[in-house]
């Protein structure tokens, strides 16, 4: 790294379902090679001694003061500080929840101040994605993780009210901070260009020769997976994320749908009419955003496409398929019955 080059902290803020897990896996797999190219992805060791697979814990405001200093007794930020004080490379911090957590928890200002005191300019890398496919992907993630049984239509309306998929709204706190440079990326264009290579170029790494490719993470879990997950939640009458036994149940569920190859038939809630309805809803704000930040119409960033609905219809499935699904559901129910009574809830409903 040249001594005259301004050091940079790249804050990759997601959002969810824009390739964050794949990017993080790729960066971890190539950690040493990227360090040699001038980009460090600090390894965070949790209090239990295990490595954190991402930087989610850094979003909590507990370890940095309002002035951007590290509090006495901090456990995580001193690990970042060791990299920052060496001053030998740019730094990448990444987690998909940063987009809401950093402004929401009051951590963004503290982090910018922290890096400013150590001579780092902060660049936020944020992805924007066409809402219909994005909502479909997010819904699949929500259902496979047993977060709460919900119709796709209800999910779409919930997100419309919250603004969580409107780039002008979720990126506003970052654009409004004059200390931050915001690099807005079209998810669809990045995928076409090669997601990992495109991302690294935005982090100042042009030389990608010899880096190890990694498989895509969090692919569409499949129509059978969504149906089975909903059956589990329906029969229990509750989402499972608040229970201590959740980790065990989800690991078993994931192992089952991967073993049975349910990911081979993606879940698609969209038909062409619904796709066009959702796209039309966001068209005005999308187009204004695209023209301001990309100098192009949203239609140029994301050309229209066709969709065909693909969900599991139990009346059209074979007896063997339904028996397989029922076995997975029963296993989850049995694990819950065995574990939940002993462990109880982590938080109140």
Structural features:
single chain, 349 residues, alpha/beta, five-stranded parallel sheet, 16 helices, 5 strands, globular
Write up this protein.
- 49% of the residues lie in helices and 8% in strands.
- It has 349 residues and is an alpha/beta fold.
- Strands 2-3-1-4-5 form a 5-stranded parallel β-sheet.
- Helix 10 (187-193) crosses helix 11 and helix 12 crosses helix 16 (319-343).
- The radius of gyration is 22 Å and the shape is globular.
- The model has no long low-confidence stretch (mean pLDDT 93).
Summarize, please.
By secondary structure, the chain is of the alpha/beta class. It contains 16 helices and five strands. It has helices spanning 20-29, 31-36, 77-86, 98-105, 107-117, 131-144, 152-162, 167-170, 172-175, 187-193, 195-202, 223-236, 246-259, 272-293, 298-301, 319-343; strands spanning 7-12, 39-40, 90-94, 120-128, 180-186.
Helix content: 40-55%
First CA to last CA: what distance?
51 Å
Shape category: globular
Uncertain runs with pLDDT below 50, 5 residues or more? none
List the secondary-structure elements in sequence, H or E: EHHEHEHHEHHHHEHHHHHHH
The computed structural class is: alpha/beta
Total DSSP helices:
16
In total, the number of strands is: 5
Strand order of the largest sheet: 2-3-1-4-5
Radius of gyration: 22 Å
For the sheet with most strands, the description reads: 5 strands, parallel
| Strand-residue proportion | 5-15%
Overall pLDDT: 93
């Amino acid at each position: 790294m040249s001594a005259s080059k301004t050091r940079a902290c790249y804050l990759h803020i997601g959002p969810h379902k824009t390739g964050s897990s794949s990017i993080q896996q790729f960066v971890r797999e190539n950690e040493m090679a990227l360090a040699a190219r001038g980009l460090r992805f600090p390894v965070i060791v949790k209090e239990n001694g295990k490595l954190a697979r991402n930087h989610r814990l850094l979003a909590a405001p507990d370890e940095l003061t309002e002035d951007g200093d590290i509090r006495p007794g901090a456990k995580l930020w001193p690990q970042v500080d060791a990299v920052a004080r060496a001053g030998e490379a740019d730094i990448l911090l990444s987690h998909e929840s940063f987009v809401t957590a950093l402004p929401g928890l009051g951590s963004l200002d503290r982090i910018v101040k922290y890096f400013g005191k150590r001579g780092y300019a902060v660049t936020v890398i944020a992805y924007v994605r066409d809402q219909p496919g994005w909502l479909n992907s997010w819904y699949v993630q929500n259902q496979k993780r047993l977060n709460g049984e919900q119709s796709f239509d209800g999910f779409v309306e919930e997100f419309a009210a919250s603004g969580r998929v409107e780039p002008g709204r979720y990126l506003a706190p970052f654009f409004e901070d004059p200390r931050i440079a915001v690099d807005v990326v079209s998810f669809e264009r990045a995928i076409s260009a090669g997601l990992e290579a495109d991302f690294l170029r935005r982090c100042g790494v042009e030389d990608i020769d010899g880096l190890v490719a990694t498989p895509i993470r969090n692919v569409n879990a499949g129509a059978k997976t969504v149906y089975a997950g909903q059956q589990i939640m329906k029969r229990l009458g509750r989402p499972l994320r608040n229970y201590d036994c959740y980790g065990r149940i989800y690991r078993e569920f994931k192992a089952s749908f991967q073993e049975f190859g349910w990911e081979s038939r993606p879940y698609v809630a969209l038909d062409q009419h619904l796709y066009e309805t959702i796209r039309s809803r966001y068209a005005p704000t999308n187009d204004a955003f695209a023209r301001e930040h990309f100098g192009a119409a949203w239609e140029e960033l994301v050309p229209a496409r066709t969709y065909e609905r693909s969900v599991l219809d139990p009346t059209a499935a074979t007896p063997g398929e339904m028996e397989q699904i029922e076995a997975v559901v029963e296993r989850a129910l049995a694990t819950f019955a065995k574990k939940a009574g002993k462990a109880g809830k982590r938080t109140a409903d």
